[in-house]
Amino acid sequence: MRAVGWARGLPLNSGGKVARDRAREHLESLGWTECAPQRVDSVLVTVSQLVTNAHVHAHSSTRLVLTWDTRCLYVVVHDAASDLPARRPPGTERLGGRGLSLVDALADDWYARPCPGGKIVHACFRPPASARDADDS
Fold this sequence. Notes:
Helix content: 40-55%
Radius of gyration: 15 Å
Distance between the termini: 14 Å
Number of helices: 5
CATH class: Alpha Beta
Mean pLDDT: 86
Strand content: 25-35%
CATH architecture: 2-Layer Sandwich
CATH superfamily: Histidine kinase-like ATPase, C-terminal domain
């Protein structure tokens, strides 16, 4: 199986929009914006949430990696904090507490694990069957 990957470093002063824009460019190069546009929005919201969470909670730059192996688009965000993300109840008086719930609702699967130099948060997005069929031809 052949995989196509892409990686970008995102400094702490960059935001979710930079991450979304770069991810969208990669998704366009893979043809996802044409064959799976509904999944593109889910991927971009997840990218934005994971990068923003890393910047806000880990106080570090991040690395964003997207990999497509024809079965799943993997979104991986690495930051310098070893503490794994934990869900917080959303509050009515403060921002936050919804990011991981969004990721859980949008991604087909996700997990976080420690790794050298911090942690990764990994999400998987499977395209609709029609997009996979087009890739196989």
